Amino acid sequence: MPLTEFNLIERYFAHKDPRRDDVVMGVGDDCALLKVPAGFELAVSIDTLVEGVHFPEGTSPEAIGHKSLAVGLSDLAAMGATPAWATLSLSIPEIDEPWLQGFSSGLFALAKKYQVQLVGGDTVRGPLVISMQVHGFVPEDRALCRSGAKPGDGIYVIGTLGDAGLGLRVVQGKSSANKNDADYLRKRLDYPSPRIETGLSLRNTASACIDISDGLAADLGHILKASGVGATLQVDQFPVSDSLRNTVSLDESIRLALTAGDDYELCFTVPMEREAALEELPVSCTRIGSIEAQSDLRLLDANNLPYPMERNGFDHFRK
Ligand code: ADP
Ligand code: MG
């Protein structure tokens, strides 16, 4: 019996764990009904993933389900928000049950990890496009914004940079890597880890924060612009994985760290007097430079000499 839209929603998206006490009405009525706790602001973000643009064709449905929630959770992490709810708009070319099963299992595995309840959505027939809206809570006036960086603040990133971008190039056959490295890089592309715990612990420490979805130069550029400051980065301090180092030259690793998107790590700034608090972070972070009053982004190499900006490389990412 062909699956109707209603049965599809029932089977793959309704009545899934977790079920939260702050959901008065979830999937099943015309609207969801939700309770925001007193003293908190609601942090909301939406992202759309288009096949062939935001993930390569042939990506597993589990990975697509994971990533469609992970990118939104990464935005909540960057604001220092605790995730709560999600809504999903799903456009699919046909009712393909193995695909829906995979998508749903990838999505709900991550939803369970962060106690996010899917509370509603929309399902239509069309090209494969997934929009996920996420909602989280942040105590009033405590969100981590892009606008708080001050001259003298240290610039930090967590995790490693450039892996997802190189993973995409390997998938596309534009770079070759040994099997172990190729598998690692592909995993970094397909299964980004939203840095929720880190975002929460940075709430008392960071002066500004952003998640790296479009590359360090572009995303740090948003902090610089919003804060009305500039920065100098030490390119020899960029944290890169062994797999990245094994696969590309040093210059290429720096270019990838600066310009490759999709890593979903956090970049944040910290006033000097609060830097000691970073030892409490759940993951290790790396200091890659400092905020300065002079606008724009400058790069220094290991000898403190200017690192040449490739005209066609990342110059157009500068703000
Ligand atoms: P309406 O026509 O009133 O918009 P729908 O038939 O689109 O209702 O959806 C029925 C219910 O299922 C609603 O509660 C809606 O939020 C939910 N829903 C639809 N598609 C999805 C989906 N892909 N994921 C989660 N909930 C969904
Ligand atoms: Mg509808």
Rounded to the nearest angstrom, the radius of gyration is 20 Å
What is the fold named in CATH at topology level of the largest domain? Phosphoribosyl-aminoimidazole Synthetase, Chain A, domain 2
First and last CA, distance? 55 Å
SSE ordering: HEEEHEHEEEHHHEHEHHEEE
Main sheet specs: 6 strands, mixed
Helix count equals 9
List keywords for this structure.
319 residues; alpha+beta; 60s Ribosomal Protein L30, Chain: A; Phosphoribosyl-aminoimidazole Synthetase, Chain A, domain 2; six-stranded mixed sheet; 31% helix; disordered C terminus; binds adenosine-5'-diphosphate; binds magnesium ion
Architecture overview:
The chain is α+β, with helices and mostly antiparallel strands. It contains nine helices and twelve strands. It has helices at residues 5-12, 61-79, 97-113, 163-171, 179-190, 196-202, 216-227, 242-247, 250-259; strands at residues 23-25, 33-34, 40-50, 82-92, 117-125, 129-139, 154-158, 208-211, 230-234, 266-270, 285-292, 296-300. The strands form three sheets. A six-stranded mixed beta sheet has the order 8-10-7-11-9-12, sandwiched between helices. Helix 2 (61-79) runs parallel beside helix 3 and helix 2 packs parallel to helix 6 (196-202). Bound molecules: adenosine-5'-diphosphate and magnesium ion. Adenosine-5'-diphosphate binds at residues 9, 13, 27-30, 88, 90, 118, 120-123.
Short précis:
With 319 residues, this protein is α+β, with helices and mostly antiparallel strands. It is built from nine helices and twelve strands. The chain has helices at 5-12, 61-79, 97-113, 163-171, 179-190, 196-202, 216-227, 242-247, 250-259; strands spanning 23-25, 33-34, 40-50, 82-92, 117-125, 129-139, 154-158, 208-211, 230-234, 266-270, 285-292, 296-300.
